[in-house]
Design a protein that fits this description.
With about 325 residues, this protein is of the alpha/beta class. Helices cover about 40% and strands about 15% of the residues. The structure holds 2-amino-3-ketobutyric acid.
Length: about 325
């Protein structure tokens, strides 16, 4: 299992924690973190770092050769809320970034790719409760459109060129070590910081906006379990549904109140509320469970408790 790994978009919410886990698992020198910034963030500074713009195919190729990279975790993307502000950039970065990475695999320069999809692939005509693996999609956001197209692109490269690209549809991800950026589900991270710092939070979604969410350790576990599964167990080559816990802002606030009794939440829904309204409330992840043994460890109660403990007493 000796690989050289490149994480693109390593300074983001998932990338920061994924690099730390991969470095624990494979060795610090084996995992190259990369992002747009010239210098690594503190969390990434213990190992190799390269400035990469994934739209620069030649620059990407040079780094892959420099470190003899076998596996790429390609996380760089514009998320749902930001992409709505800059649709052309969202399309360009999300689609051409994936193309540049997947072409490296087709040409035999890398062996395996992880690329995240999202619950944003679903739209207003999708069944909302226990959304199945295969169903109507028709997303309304540019982010969701790029994720549906990207899933088909991955499946096409797998079928036609035997490229080993693997993917999960992430729900909203909640963690305490790194900040989310530009997503519709970001409220579920901000709320913890505001509850601890100020005892109150103004939410940009309405109180009943139920969305699928997942605690970061489960998101990392899903990513690594999928990447470590034997290739013949990875039967879905678009992207797997995975689920953690589904809840509304009101239910999350209620759970936080068990630990911070005076916590107050108010609601001022903005454009992100309509994005949330087009997404599922809960997800059927039975195919991920049966194909490669997916199972989350955290429910809402455990996640809230763990978030609050760690944010109050940072361990890292
Ligand atoms: C977003 O809100 O855009 C992301 C996602 C669900 O993919 N967190």
């Amino acid at each position: 299992m000796s690989q050289n790994i490149l994480v693109i978009g390593a300074a983001g919410q998932i990338g920061t924690e994924l690099v730390q886990e991969l470095r624990k698992m494979y060795g610090t020198d084996k995992v190259v973190a990369s992002d747009l910034a010239e210098r690594p963030t503190n969390a990434l500074a213990d190992g190799p770092y390269e400035q990469i713009d994934v739209l620069d195919a030649k620059g990407l190729f040079d780094i892959v050769k420099k470190y003899a990279i076998d596996e790429v975790y390609h996380l760089a993307a514009l998320l749902s809320a930001t992409a709505e502000m800059k649709p052309a950039l969202g399309w360009n970065l999300n689609m051409n970034g994936l193309s540049n990475v997947i072409e490296l695999a087709r040409d035999g320069h890398i062996r395996k790719i992880f690329w995240p999809s999202s619950i944003a692939v679903f739209g207003p005509h999708t069944p909302k409760d226990m959304t199945p693996q295969r169903t109507v999609m028709e997303p309304t956001t540019v982010y969701g459109i790029t994720k549906v197209a990207g899933e088909s692109w991955c499946e096409y490269y797998n079928r036609r060129y035997n490229v080993d690209v693997r993917s999960v549809r992430f729900p909203g991800i909640i963690g305490y070590k790194s900040a989310p950026g530009g997503g519709t589900t970001d409220y579920a991270v901000h709320i913890f910081h505001e509850a601890i710092a100020h005892g109150k939070y103004e939410c940009f979604l309405n109180e009943n906006a139920e969305l699928p969410m997942m605690y970061m350790p489960d998101a990392i576990k899903a990513t690594l379990n999928l990447m470590h599964a034997p290739a013949d167990q990875v039967k879905v080559r678009t992207s797997y549904n995975i689920a953690g816990a589904s809840f509304t802002p009101a239910i999350l606030a209620e759970e936080i109140r068990k630990h911070i009794p005076d916590f107050k939440i108010t609601y001022k829904p903005d454009y992100r509320d309509s994005i949330a309204a087009s997404w599922p409330s809960s997800i059927d992840d039975s195919m991920a469970r049966s194909d490669w043994g997916w199972q989350p460890d955290f429910n809402l109660e455990r996640m809230v408790e763990d978030m609050l403990v760690n944010l109050r007493e940072p361990t890292v």
